[in-house]
Design brief:
Order of helices and strands: HHHHEEEHHEEHEHHHHEHH
Coiled coil: 252-300
Number of domains: 4
Region (Disordered): 114-142, 435-464
Number of strands: 7
Keywords: Coiled coil
Structural class: mainly alpha
Strand order of the largest sheet: 1-3-2
Number of helices: 13
Distance between the termini: 109 Å
Largest sheet: 3 strands, antiparallel
Mean pLDDT: 82
């Protein structure tokens, strides 16, 4: 609506030009007010508010706004009558009479417009009455007051701005939130259908419970937005234009985030459905390998106990029956499409099956360690003899005796590993003595360096 721009009441009588300028100014104000009122009358938000069942903040503010709009039209009629009367008094005369100019000055500047006395109905509780020149009660009517045209325009501008703010805010919320809620609800229904197909249901899976909560929240949110849109309006504050602000989407955004979390959970379950058979096959393979490894360890343990003496051999556990039972349960979940239960079970089984295979391998290594030690001692004994043979010293009586003693221990059953190891060491020491140069060290240690008639230190190093 327009700006009043009129002179203050009182002062000298206006001349013809001042009167004409004032009439033109108020004529423009009248046209602007009329255009604004009809635009407000046709505003989609106002029509929606008129036909809606309102509650809360919106119901309260719309009641005040309806009163303001009604008074706006009453004041506009008074504005129209006052302006038409002033224009009629001005007439077409080029030189109006002094009395007419004085009357026009009183009408255009003074409190010449009678209107119903009223508070600003679009304000909240506690708003005081608008400034007025004088008020009285006319016969057969309520309290009236007389105000200037400038005051009338200013008052109408204020009521119009507040009325438009209410209507525009409600329309903005209704234009934004219900459509977004409906789109999110459609996505919710799609996710609910997917959830049902993979067995995600309330009371059986956390995602099913979350879906129920999101459904209830969206239903409640839409009902509240439709009946009380202004409760979801964040005003820009300050001196913003009518309708300045934005819809409050905090609850909507929270529901959207929760639904997105559920969607990711459902996608994970769907992925389990696609990969379940392959993962179950891998689990069977891993557990079968672990079982075979444990069986091999048990067989090896019996062999070790029969062939190795005076050695502690660790016990071997039985097959992973508990994991096989859970694997059977996983297959049952897959067969009955209980994907929401299968998903965490598969993850747990995969981790434990890998651990079981590693444990079986470690058990086999620990059980066969004595056999590995015996094989190593056998290899060392034969290697020492082969090296001596290359130097023509293998038939030495002492070496032959010690070789036979060590060989009997290593190839007998059960084998005493400690005694066999000592016998191999004695054979090595005798070999070093035979190969030691004359005058060399007698303690079996290698010589510091070679000599003209003796064995080089490098040959003795081969027995280390």
């Amino acid at each position: 609506m327009g700006d009043d721009g009129a002179a203050e009441p009182g002062g000298p009588v206006m001349d013809r030009e001042e009167v004409d300028r004032a009439l033109a100014r108020f004529g423009a104000e009248h046209e602007a007010v009329e255009t604004s009122l009809y635009a407000l009358q046709d505003h989609a938000g106002r029509r929606l508010l008129e036909g809606a069942e309102l509650t809360g903040v919106t119901k309260e503010r719309w009641a005040r706004t309806e009163e303001a709009v009604s008074l706006l039209w009453t004041y506009f009629d008074a504005f129209t009558a006052a302006l038409d009367s002033a224009r009629g008094l001005r007439g077409e005369s080029r030189w109006p009479a002094p009395d007419d100019l004085a009357e026009l000055t009183a009408r255009l500047r003074g409190p010449a417009v009678a209107v119903p006395a009223a508070h600003s109905p679009a304000d909240g509780p506690g708003s005081g009455p608008e400034p007025k020149a004088e008020s009285k009660t006319e016969s057969g009517a309520g309290p009236v007051e007389r105000i200037t045209l400038a005051e009338l325009v200013a008052r109408m501008n204020g009521w119009y701005a507040r009325s438009l703010d209410t209507v525009a805010a409600a329309d903005s919320v209704w234009s934004a939130l219900p459509a977004r809620i409906d789109m999110l609800s459609a996505e919710l229904q799609r996710i609910r259908s997917l959830a049902h197909s993979v067995g995600v249901r309330p009371g059986e899976h956390p995602a099913g419970d979350e879906l129920e909560q999101v459904t209830a929240e969206l239903t409640a949110l839409r009902a509240e937005v439709v009946t009380d849109p202004l409760a979801f309006w964040v005003s820009a504050g300050g001196s913003s234009a009518p309708g300045g602000g934005r819809p409050d989407t905090v609850r909507y955004d929270r529901a959207a985030r929760a639904l997105e979390d559920v969607r990711r959970e459902i996608d994970a379950v769907l992925q389990v459905r696609q990969d379940a058979e392959q993962r179950l096959m891998r689990l069977r393979d891993v557990l079968s390998r672990a079982d075979r490894t444990l069986a091999e360890a048990r067989t090896a343990r019996g062999e070790v106990l029969a062939k190795i003496a005076a050695v502690e051999v660790p016990a071997v556990s039985g097959p992973p029956t508990a994991l096989y039972e859970q694997l059977t349960l996983a297959a049952e979940h897959r067969r009955h499409a209980r994907w929401h239960r299968l998903s965490p079970l598969l993850e747990s089984l995969e981790e434990r099956a890998d651990e079981e295979l590693e444990r079986a391998r470690a058990s086999l290594t620990a059980v066969t360690a004595p056999l590995a030690v015996r094989a190593e001692l056998r290899g060392r004994l034969d290697a020492y003899r082969a090296r001596l043979a290359r130097r023509g010293a293998a038939d030495d009586p002492v070496l032959t005796e010690r070789y036979d003693a060590a060989r009997r221990l290593l190839w007998s059953a059960p084998c005493d590993l400690r005694a066999a190891e000592q016998a191999v060491l004695r054979y090595r020491e005798a070999a070093l003595e035979v190969l030691a140069p004359p005058g060399g060290p007698a303690d079996g240690k290698p010589a510091e360096g070679g000599s003209a008639g003796g064995e080089p230190a490098g040959r003795q190093e081969e027995f280390r």
